[in-house]
Specification:
The protein is an alpha/beta fold and 267 residues long. The chain contains nine helices and seven strands. The radius of gyration is 19 Å and the shape is globular. The structure holds nicotinamide-adenine-dinucleotide.
């Protein structure tokens, strides 16, 4: 038995799009640990990707914004053999109908759609899959390292992630009524994935974040995935209702010497 103790455990992964996805890296760690993976992806393109990289793992298509599609998925997977031990929610979507605007001009329809896909889907997935879960299982979502650093280009995704962080606590509490299922999140700082590439003007904050880590090296997606796999595993049995920050120390480095010096010198 490996350190994580995930051999033969059934884990359902939402949100894999390509090799850069956080979900892809989580799947790699889980596979190495001997878990049995099931995937739910957005479309046919991702099905082909999963079939190529994880041959033999069942893969389903589900738009999490569509309640019927999610219900069908829960029935299909729930009818399969054995309980689901773990669920990974690694999904985000932001819509900018009129292009990127200052925060106070956020459109209601964009905000609600983003909240639906990036936050409510987590609550709904947890609820629909609860009857099919191992009572000692674990659910993990991917959040961000801070929802209070008001980066203009992250816009309304930060309040949506704040709602996601809060939902972690409420789900953990409501599951505790009749199960020992734990619910946690990984609060990741800036990564290089296709969803981050879609954030307007992402590259400069990404390069800044690299300098602002304590180690002066960018956070790697594998590092986020390792924490997600740990939280899913029985090794994290004492951790519940938390967002574990994975930011290579950036959050304490507001007064980084080199950055302060460059700012004061006007460089
Ligand atoms: P990604 O684009 O690879 O993953 C996002 C996934 O969401 C994709 O697989 C996409 O298909 C899926 N998705 C979007 N709308 C959907 C829908 N309606 N139904 C089903 N699936 C849908 O990007 P990623 O960076 O791997 O994002 C995964 C998670 O990590 C997100 O929650 C994101 O906010 C979070 N995160 C990313 C970073 C970063 O810098 N990239 C930092 C912190 C947190």
């Amino acid at each position: 038995m490996g350190f994580l103790g995930l051999e033969g455990k059934k884990i359902l992964i939402f949100g894999m799009a390509n090799r850069k996805s956080v979900a892809f890296h989580i799947a790699e760690v889980l596979k190495e640990s001997g878990a049995d993976l099931i995937f739910s992806v957005l479309g046919q393109e991702q099905v082909s990707f999963v079939n190529k990289i994880f041959p033999g793992s069942p893969v389903h298509i589900c738009d999490v914004g569509n309640e019927d599609s999610l219900r069908d998925l829960a029935c299909k997977i729930g009818d399969g053999q054995g309980k689901i031990y773990g669920i990974v929610h690694s999904i985000a979507f932001a819509s900018y109908t009129d292009g990127f605007k200052p925060f106070h001009q956020t459109r209601k329809d964009d905000f609600l759609k983003t909240m639906d896909i990036s936050c409510f889907s987590f609550i709904q997935i947890a609820g629909l899959f609860k009857p099919h879960m191992d009572p000692d299982g674990s659910i993990v979502t991917i959040s961000i390292s801070t929802t209070r650093m008001a980066a203009e280009n992250y816009g309304y995704m930060a309040p949506v992630k704040a709602a996601l962080d809060s939902s972690i606590c409420f789900l953990a509490k409501s599951f505790s009524e009749d199960t020992r299922v734990r619910v946690n999140g990984v609060g990741a700082s800036l990564l290089k994935t296709s969803s981050s590439a879609g954030i307007p003007g992402y590259i400069e904050p990404y390069l800044f974040a690299e300098k602002a880590t304590l180690r002066k090296a960018a956070l790697k997606t594998e590092e986020v995935a390792n924490v997600a796999a740990f939280l899913l595993s029985p090794r994290a049995s004492g951790i519940n209702a938390q967002t574990v920050i994975v930011d290579a120390g950036m959050s304490v480095n507001y007064f980084d010497k080199a950055i302060v010096k460059a700012a004061v010198a006007g460089k």
